Amino acid sequence: MSQQLHKVRIRSHLAPRREPYWAAPLALGRFLGYRKIDAVRGSWVARARTEDGRQQYKALGALTDAFGYDSAVAAAHAWFAELDAGVIPHGRYTVEDACADYVKDRRREKGERCAADAEWRFKHTVNGTAFARTELARVRTREVKEWREGLKLTPAGANRMMTTLRAALNLAVENRRIASTAAQEWRSVKQYKNADGRREIFLDLRQRRALLAAATGSVRDLIEAAMVTGARPGELAAAPRSAFDSRTKTLKLTGKTGMRTVPLSPAAVKVFDRVTRSKLPAAPLLSRDDGKAWTRAEWTELVRTAAAAAKIEGEPANKAKLPAGVCLYTLRHSFITQAISDGLTTLDVARLTGTSLAMIDKHYGHLVQSASAQRLAKVKMV
């Protein structure tokens, strides 16, 4: 028997019971119900019959002044739309669940290195937070923005974290764990503009030597390789032993701009001669102490530890430490800065580091102008 649940008087006279009272069908095989808990409390429930004849139920929420009959009808229709879209019925599916599924997907589709990178990001920014425990269907734009602001990262760092999170939540939509309409909540969170501005942390020669001296084990080789090549950390970590050719003194790297072969300085040749000794061609060019390839998760903490322990000899205590925020990518910036300051052309630097002239001009144009002014001062015209 259907009940006129839209009427407050009818609901108030219902006897408390576990089985919901059902109103007239909202559509064929689809109902809104009201579970009477006690004299003053109740909650809304939706019910739908699937194509295979089974009944599916969805708890919509407690009756409140803000969530009355009309709101419950709207919530029920939203759930029916999810079922029509093929969303897989499931229990409570949280942001952290979506992130874990994304890591599994990356491991299966892209490999261990990609999965480890995503896992490291979620471990340090999502897991264990109130945001992580939020049911994905209930995530709102405001909560995503509050999570991002709470990271206390640079705009560029926040953009990278947001890109990874957005990919994880979009995968949940693709896998029918949530309705596609939910994606608007995180799609509305725009990336910070002009986040990738001029790089600020530059390590001079003494600082670089101090960092190298403080590093121990195989991470020292990784740090030194980054110093002498200016390559992206991921390019070095992904390179096999065969990428280094001791006869031609070159190194093959694959990155954002595809594969490139770069000439090596005498210092770089010395480094790679040492790290490749007795290695098979398919082995990692730069490996961890256990012989396996590096991932971001492994090198990040070790580089930070070395940077914190570094001491510049001959400097007072307040100047002996490296600036805060030093990471492996800092060495790429330092290489480009040093190379331009020492007179290499922007074309040479772009080719060596696998970037474009436009990016060099955007991030290092001030150095190019300064170096040009110094060289111009030496030109004798009259």
Summarize this entry quickly.
The protein contains 15 helices and 7 strands. With 382 residues, it is of the alpha+beta class. The strands form 2 sheets. A 4-stranded antiparallel β-sheet has the order 1-2-3-4, covered by helices on one side. It has a 3-stranded antiparallel β-sheet with strand order 5-6-7.
Please tell me about this protein's structure.
By secondary structure, this protein is an alpha+beta fold. Helix content is about 45%, strand content about 10%. It has 15 helices and 7 strands. It has helices at about 10, 70-85, 95-110, 110-125, 140-150, 155-175, 185, 205-215, 220-230, 235-240, 265-275, 295-310, 330-340, 345-355, 355-375, and strands at about 20, 30-35, 40-50, 55-60, 245, 250-255, 260-265. The strands form 2 sheets. Strands 1-2-3-4 form a 4-stranded antiparallel β-sheet, with helices on one face. Strand 6 and strand 7 form a beta hairpin. Helix 8 (about 205-215) runs antiparallel to helix 9, helix 9 (about 220-230) runs antiparallel to helix 11 (about 265-275) and helix 13 (about 330-340) runs parallel beside helix 15 (about 355-375). The longest helix has 21 residues, at about 355-375. It starts with 7 loop residues before the first helix and ends in a 5-residue tail after the last helix. The relative contact order is 0.08.
